[in-house]
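User: New here, please read:
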Amino acid sequence: MNGSSHLRDAKDAFRVNPWLMCLILAAFAGAAVSYSYLYAYHVIAVIYLWYARKHWVWVFRNGRGLLTQPLVLFPIISIVWYAAWTLFANDPALTLQYMVYISCGFFVVTVLIVESLRPKEDARRITTEGIFRTLACVAILEIAVGLLEIFTPFRWPVSRLSPILHWFGRTTDITNEVLLATDTNYLYSMPTGLHYNPNDFAAVMCLVFPFLWLMRNRTGALLWALTIVLLIVESGSRLAFFSLCFMAVSETLISLTRFSWHKLVLLGLLLFVASDGFFVTPTHHPKVEELAFLNPKDKMLSGGREESAGMRRDLFYAGIEMVKQDPLLGKGPGGARRALLAMRGVGKEHLVDLHFYWLELAVDMGLLYALLFALWYGFIAWSLWKLIKRSSLERKYVPQALFLALVGFGMAGVAPSSLVYFLPMYLAFGLSLWTIKTERV
């Protein structure tokens, strides 16, 4: 479908349900449009609720059967579970802060579930195509911002590396000590896009990758995929790069009967980076050297820039010990951060986030909740897989891309320091549930 059709679908979506579309875009952008702790997402959420209040009342009167289904009920259970901790928390302020985080995240999931229940004759019912083609425009904007940040001095204003970050009520953690210990060219060529931090940006690119890679136009798909490889390599995120490799290999194995030249090119490039020049011709590019997990000379856990991997290892072991202390119900929302603060952090940078969200869930909320979350995540992916098998060729694209994105994000999601307030993750869950509910055949 041509570009004018994409823009027309996006315009139609905004015309039909403007505040829902604004909420979706704000969830994708996260902190990109914000001042201090106030995001555009927060303001739009309030406006949306007023705008859609009649539909919400209708849903709670007429859709109770669907709202009690496990896939739909889990976000509500999560908010209640976090809220219950505020009643007997040792640190009520931090517990309340995490409850707000999780409520904001699961709000967009709940919104998309509720909106998927609009009758077909409802004038405010938008199409799946309208949602994803609008998001495509913002994803392309973020890719463009990332490329500008690599090749020019341009930097999105709300970015960890932005020289004007203080204008937006934030303080940077890029101190003189960090600059003295780091190659500034290495640091300031890292793209952050709309997502403040290179690791967060790389995780978002992993969510975006399947939608571009599964395009019917193979040349276009390859060009977009190569661009995302470049962005992730320049971000220096090992785990995001590994996730990208996993998604590319998995999609190739799943669709062996449709193997084509563009897949061979992408797999060849990923192997080149992962082996730092096919094992024999080193690139001498510092970021490629870091990402070369297949290189037998790789020293990920010792010395130089590899210190971050060593700190992640220490954080992981610390997290395991915390789980052993309170295995069933956990330490409560923010428990991992509270424990690391008490330890004065880990490593030279005194890190106070676990940098492993799936482990953080187990530490904070216990193994019982972590298991429920994993089952919910897996059931969403399984439901998408079943939808792919039932759908016609024309309707497979969205569930295929969402399925691959969720599978890859299981690894890419370990790259950011935490995902508790990572709105694109919740948006991916919400869009998956929207697709499962609206695209059934």
Remarks:
- DSSP finds 20 helices and two strands in the chain.
- The chain has a mean pLDDT of 86.
